[in-house]
Here is the input.
Amino acid sequence: FKYCYDYMNSDDIYDNMNHLVIGQFTKLLLKHDINPLDYMEEIPDYFLDGSDIESFVIPNNIKRIEDFAFSSCKNLESIQIPSSVKEIGQNVFWDCISLESIEIPNSLTSIGYGIACGCISLKSITIPSSITVLDYEAFRHCSSLKSIKIPNSVTSIEACVFEGCTGLTSIEIPSSVKEIGYDAFLDCKCTITYDGTKKQ
Here is the structure.
């Protein structure tokens, strides 16, 4: 199946048709209990974009998840990323409005650009101690998040990471964080603790 995806990802095919073909091809295989990921090391761009799946198991042979792989899967409730995954692209779970939890493995050093942007049902996220960067818009508009603890490994919180997280009541920022981007906490009416000091 790898070569099918390589062909469909070629520059000769118009992008929108590319995404449609990949999605339909994937759904057809899954309907027949064939998981194409069992034969691949990367989940391609827009792999299940807009699918009605409620759950999905990412196999342990996957090393990278490409951009928008599960975006707009509006019925997806939870997903576990295996420790085999070393890299995550942009907006992987963008607009997954039913997603309540994401398990992030210690194999990652950064939480990707817009990884859970628009996931309005996301209630909890555990950030492992391997993470050093929270990338741009990672949890933007995750309005169901109540609290979050950032580990001492994190050195940078990029712009708009928690923008619009209106449900946050508290957030702890360790002294290891040396850089906080613009609007990182815009519209967050919560108590922020930085190196032991509380601020509203």
User: Anything to note?
Assistant: The helical segments are 2-8, 15-31. The CA atoms of residues 110 and 133 lie 5 Å apart. Residues 10-18 have pLDDT under 50 and may be disordered.
